[in-house]
């Protein structure tokens, strides 16, 4: 599955070849992902081609410094990251992909606080559910 993507302002544009379509959609519970709130899908390292704005991408690393989180320096939108759990993959912000929505019926949330790279067993922290038309009480 090959899709076009861009940040919010359009400064950064890219194409991505997803590893397994939307079947890899997930969120993480680590401190950054909990604040960021994005749904990510997987792509191999050679699966992303930056078409425009490569010089406007900024990179953020924290904790072990292994994961590289990339975002547009103009609008601040996270576009993709090189994974700590699998450095041969990128996680790509599903909301940045043309024709896609992060509001999937269910998205697994992986336990990023007890990270598998720290010797912990990979664990599901929970599941996010989107119910169309649901409203607060």
- Rg (CA only): 15 Å
Mean of residue pLDDT values: 89
Number of domains: 1
Fraction of residues in helix: under 10%
Order of helices and strands: EEEHEEEEEEEE
Structural class of the secondary structure composition? mainly beta
- Described by the principal axes of the CA atoms, the overall outline is globular
Task: Point out poorly predicted stretches.
Answer: none
**How many helical elements?**
1
Oligomer: single chain
CATH class: Mainly Beta
Could you say what the CATH architecture is?
Beta Complex
Distance between the termini: 39 Å
Largest sheet at a glance?
Answer: 5 strands, antiparallel
Per DSSP E runs of 2 or more residues, the count of β-strands stands at 11
Strands side by side in the biggest sheet: 4-9-8-7-6
Classify the beta-strand content into a percent band.
35-45%
Structure description:
The protein is mainly beta. It has a single domain (about 1-130), classed as Beta Complex (Metal Binding Protein, Guanine Nucleotide Exchange Factor, Chain A), CATH 2.170.150.70. It has one helix and eleven strands. The chain has one helix spanning about 30-35; strands at about 1-5, 15, 25-30, 40-45, 50, 55-60, 70, 80, 90-95, 105-110, 125-130. The strands form three sheets. A five-stranded antiparallel β-sheet has the order 4-9-8-7-6, with no helix packed on it.
């Amino acid at each position: 599955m090959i899709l076009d993507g861009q940040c919010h302002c359009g400064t950064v544009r890219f194409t991505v070849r997803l590893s397994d379509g939307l079947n890899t959609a997930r969120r993480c519970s680590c401190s950054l992902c909990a604040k960021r709130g994005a749904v990510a899908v997987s792509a191999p390292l050679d699966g992303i081609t930056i078409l425009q704005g490569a010089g406007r991408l900024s990179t953020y690393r924290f904790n072990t410094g292994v994961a590289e989180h990339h975002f547009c320096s103009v609008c601040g939108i996270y576009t993709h990251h090189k994974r700590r759990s699998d450095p041969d993959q990128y996680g790509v912000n599903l909301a940045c992909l043309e024709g896609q929505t992060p509001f999937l019926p269910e998205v697994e949330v992986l336990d990023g606080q007890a990270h598998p790279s720290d010797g912990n067993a990979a664990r599901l922290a929970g599941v996010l559910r989107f119910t169309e038309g649901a409203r607060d009480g």
